[in-house]
Amino acid sequence: MNVSKDFDSLVIAGDIGGTNTNLALVGRKTDNFELLLKRTFQTQTLPDLIEPVEIILKDINEKLPDMKPQTCCISAAGPIIENRCYLTNAELVLDGKEIERVTKLPTLIINDFTALSYALPLLDREDPAMITKIPHTDGTFPEPDGPVKIVTGAGTGFGMGLLIESEDRATAYPSEAGHLDFSAFDRETEELKDFVAKKMGFNPYVELFLSGRGIVNIYNFFTSTGKISRDFIPLEVLSAPDNEKPALIAKNASQDQGCARIIKTFVKIYGRYTGNLAILTLPYGGLYLAGGIAIKNEKFFIEDNLFMKYFEIGSKPEIHKLLKKVPVYLIRNYSASIYGAANAASFLLKNIE
Description:
Helices cover 38% and strands 22% of the residues. The protein has 13 helices and 14 strands.
């Protein structure tokens, strides 16, 4: 095995989302991972992943000729069947066998939230550049106390992963939680659900509310029904195409009441839904929020305990007490999926040594 003396193994790790495709060379030394080289591509412009993989291999050969990767692990936003992934929010198919043919490396395709799940043990909860701790409504920060962790994330879509840790290893399980039916919980969300259902022509699922597209649906609901006058929405938001609106709404939310109301509605839905996921899984090891939308709107998650007020809602006092025991963290590291894919690859590497 040809590995640089500074690392136990070298991995080509990938994070393929509906918007961006990130490929990187990651070095592992015991339980520490270092990102050595990274390239980013626009997912919607890619017919397949072969050319980006060839580009990263060329970059490694030219810039880091002594670094020879042994495995390749790529995470993707979609269900995995026989080492293939059909992306949920892009016209792209990832084929592990084809990538293996190009790289000449054992290649594993995993769900994006499986990668995020494998990233959880690597995160330093005490590093504010990596993690924001979200206080409960009473101001407390419960300590992790259990083997179960979950990670949820809103971006181009919405997903959830579950991690169960034992003494000698951690096992991640994917899900398609973004495609569960959406349940309204107050009059406003009932009206919002009816609005989206009429637009879509079917009973809407969670991802249509908790994603970039979800922010646009909330925006359209408020402006179309007159609940927010277009006079109170910045012109750059009104004139932008739908795919640009979420970032612009987040950008203007701190100084614009209309944009703030849209983001606050998104946050309260996020809080209520993840509270339901916590009731289902009891993640006393921690519930982690990932994705660019949470990072860009962190202020609204914490301000006035908005997220946590809806997270802690339970139908019974006993359930409320259980939810207050769950530590909640916001992941601020945009490269978490890359590190998680590299960590997952370390298991693959063990299997082939």
